[in-house]
Amino acid sequence: MSFIENDVLKEFNRISREITEVYYNISSNLGISDSTFIILYALVELGDGCRQADIVKAYCVNKQTINSSVKKLQKEGHIELRASKGLDRNIYITQKGKKLIEEKIYPIFELENSVINEFSKEEQIMLALLTKKYLEKLKEKAKI
């Protein structure tokens, strides 16, 4: 089977993989695992009290990996789990966790904002709209 590869698609896919690698390297440079980074980042973005399922869905990550990292963060005293509806437990940041977030996660939010703010408002909107459109079309054609 053969096909003609679209050079723009090839570059888009390469960039997507490189962005993932950049975040992996950021977490590594911070001295934390990428899954710990995702959980702490999510607690800032989604808010204190979010559920593991919220993180898995919002960040498209493996639930077993997140579960293992949640247990580790809980054991280290960075987060605590509190009962919610049914079997759900919500994740809350402890004082120790807040310090970790201030040291390691807030600077990344600042970095990301400084990068995106180098784009004009029109470029920011175009980037988001075109990426979203690509994702929607991909899901539609993949029947996901």
> For the residues shown, what is the average pLDDT?
94
Estimated helix fraction: 55-70%
Based on CA atoms alone, the radius of gyration comes out at 18 Å
Name the CATH homologous superfamily of the largest domain.
Winged helix-like DNA-binding domain superfamily/Winged helix DNA-binding domain
The CATH class assignment of the largest domain is Mainly Alpha
Might you state the CATH topology name of the largest domain? Arc Repressor Mutant, subunit A
| Structural shape | globular
Total separate domains? 2
Order of the strands making up the biggest sheet: 1-2
Low-confidence spans: none
**What's the number of extended β-strand segments?**
2
How many helices? 7
Could you list some keywords that capture this structure?
2 strands, Arc Repressor Mutant, subunit A, two-stranded antiparallel sheet, about 140 residues
Walk me through this protein's architecture:
The chain is mostly helical and 144 residues long. The chain folds into 2 domains: 1-103, Arc Repressor Mutant, subunit A (Orthogonal Bundle); 105-144. It is 69% helix and 7% strand. It is built from 7 helices and 2 strands, in the order ααααββααα. It has helices at 7-30, 34-45, 52-59, 63-75, 95-104, 106-116, 121-142; strands at 79-83, 89-93. A two-stranded antiparallel ribbon has the order 1-2. Strand 1 and strand 2 (89-93) form a beta hairpin. The longest helix has 24 residues, at 7-30. It is globular and about 50 Å long. The protein starts with 6 loop residues before the first helix and ends with a helix.
